[in-house]
Amino acid sequence: MSKLIVVGGGPAGLTAAFYAVRRRLEVLLVSPELGGQARHQSTLPGFEEHRVIRGGDLVARFARELEYLGYPVRTGAVAQVRAAVDGFRVRLAAGQELDARAVILATGSRASRLGVPGEAELFQKGLYGSAASYAHLFLDKSVLVAGLGARARAAAAELSAAGAQARLLEEGERLVSLSGGPGAVQAVVEGPAGRKLLDVDGVFNALEPSPNSGPVSGLAELDGAGWVRVDSRCRTSCPGLFAAGDVTDVHREQVLVAMGEGAKAFLSAVEYLEGR
Length: 276
Ligand SMILES: Cc1cc2nc3c(=O)[nH]c(=O)nc-3n(C[C@H](O)[C@H](O)[C@H](O)COP(=O)(O)OP(=O)(O)OC[C@H]3O[C@@H](n4cnc5c(N)ncnc54)[C@H](O)[C@@H]3O)c2cc1C
Description:
Elements: E1 2-7, H1 11-22, E2 27-31, H2 55-69, E3 73-75, E4 78-84, E5 87-92, E6 97-105, E7 109-110, H3 119-122, E8 127-128, H4 131-134, E9 142-146, H5 150-161, E10 165-168, E11 174-181, E12 184-191, E13 194-200, E14 202-205, E15 210-211, E16 241-243, H6 255-273
Parallel strand pairs: 1-2, 1-6, 2-3, 6-16, 8-14, 9-10, 9-14
Antiparallel strand pairs: 4-5, 5-6, 7-15, 11-12, 12-13
Helix pairs in contact: 1-2, 1-6
Residues 7-13, 30-33, 36-38, 40, 55, 77-78, 106-109, 111, 124, 129-130, 133, 212, 215, 245-246, 253-256, 258 line the site of flavin-adenine dinucleotide (FAD).
């Protein structure tokens, strides 16, 4: 039995595992891959590469350090975490079961797809997902925010605050296709008056993402949209089960926030394991 199982190898999970290995805690990291969403590389016009700290570089450093320290990792997805006599039983999608006294869930979220031609080709090269991360690079630029509702309005507000000219899809409008590349995107939009072509500097996908909280549904309290509810110390409603990063109701969709939450979750897990 491990003392601690960390589920998910993105910024939050890698940070929690890194702290655990440094503390010489018996920890196992279970994830299909390492890096999570921080591995996405973006291309933007006027992007000064040498001035940017890439999320991917940051998590790669943590992963290299963990490798150097010789930490145990299991490649695979977790299907379910359930309560057991001495802690938790973690079932992998491949069927195997692992036991731990405490678990940190750091499985992140998944973006919703726009489902239009050109989406894959322009991903991070004209079509972006994180207004909070890239808004400041769109000063005096025109952007289309693809989505409706609160998230789209928040993205448009973020972009406008950074000096971009943000256009939202209007009621009854839908995005039909995307083409072009970084700094010059052609977006075809269909509305009640027919189709029109918009020439913009960038497009933001503002559809709601979904939390990867399935493995703990039924074990920990989730909010109405499925995010894992945590307190200010990353404790869930289930003692011994902690959660960090974008899978939680904190989900600020920032690498640094996820890493900070991962560190907090580890510190709380140690307190729990040591009965403090
Ligand atoms: C396109 C894009 C661009 C972004 N750009 C920026 C940026 O420029 N700056 C910035 O600060 N933030 C950016 N973000 C946000 C940032 O990447 C995330 O906030 C951050 O990666 C969240 O970290 P996390 O560890 O919580 O989750 P994730 O990064 O999503 O990692 C989750 C991990 O859990 C694993 N996992 C999922 N399900 C399971 C399962 N069932 N069992 C086991 N493991 C599982 C995944 O494989 C992954 O390793 C961007 C996000 C996207 C999508």
